[in-house]
Amino acid sequence: MTDLRSDELSGAPVVVVGERQDRPNLPTGDDCPFCVGGLEAPDPYDVRWFLNRWPALGAGRCEVVLYSPDHEGTLWSADVRAVVDLWAERTAALGAHADVAYVLVFENRGTEVGATISHPHGQIYAFDRVPPVAAHELALGSCPLCAEPDLPVVEQDGWRAWVPAAASFPYELVVAPARHLPDLPSLGDADRDALAAVLAGALRRLDGVLGEPMPYMLWIHQRPTDGGDWPGAHVHVHVAGVKRAPGTLRFVAAGEVGSGVFFNPVRPEDAAARLR
User: What is the pLDDT of residues 81-135, one digit of tens each?
Assistant: First the structure.
């Protein structure tokens, strides 16, 4: 992280990437670079990855993952097992570098959360240190993900999706295995199939609960790749659906940013019931 700074009051790390200010915005017309024949996908594909031309962390540390050649598709309508396999493959490949300590897989779906291209895709960042949010989870004395969730939504073959009891966003979900499994590369075929099925079922419900596409943020926390002993690592997916009602976004504004306290307008119990 070439221009890493630390806020003098909070201690929060900030990477300044001024060159990304010049990156292109929404493509116009039929010029989607992620469709087959486009700039980033010249050949037919099922799933595909490539280096981000506008990296936030420097050359080789930021990748884009295309879920499907279908421009109107979604992650949940794609071959999710193939996506899971690619996530695992890229985690292992990036994590094998001596200067990569943590691999973060994530997706921003919808212009409301900053996606500049609507074609279904996600990204992967390779950090040279464990990011603060992941580090906080890894430092917990016991693993809350191993406990039976209070607000379950979907469960299949040892994997489950649930709404956190203290959800910060209206339709927030966690997807994780019941067993204490550390990361994507360590998952066998059965677990990869189950993760794909449960994740697809959870994301499909996000679109269905309001009767319209749900903008969301998705990220995966897993074991660091620095070679350390991380007994607290339990691979899991966070999903934050940001609409609180049809056509109505839930904004995080000054009262929350300034205090660090979130105010969720949708009761997690109600969200879980609607998603089920």
Answer: 999 999 999 999 999 999 999 999 999 999 999 898 999 999 999 999 999 999 9
Q: Which of 142, 157, 152, 194 is nearest to 173 (CA)?
A: 152
Longest dimension (CA), the chain: 52
Q: Catalytic amino acids? A: 121
CA distances from 172 to 46, 162, 253 (A): 29, 8, 18
Tokens 């969301």, residue located:
216
Buried-state track 45-76, b at ≥16 Cβ within 10 A, e below 16: eebbbeebeebebeeebbbbbbbbbeeeebbb
Question: Which pLDDT score, from 0 to 100, does residue 59 have?
Answer: 76
Query: Which residue ranges form the domains of the chain, and what is each CATH number?
Result: 34-275 (3.30.428.10)
Q: Is 206 in a helix, a strand, or coil?
A: helix
Contacts of 10 (CB under 8 A, 6+ apart): none
Q: What is the arrangement of strands in the sheet containing 236-241, beginning at the earlier edge strand? A: 48-51, 62-66, 121-127, 102-109, 216-221, 236-241, 171-177, 159-162, 152-156
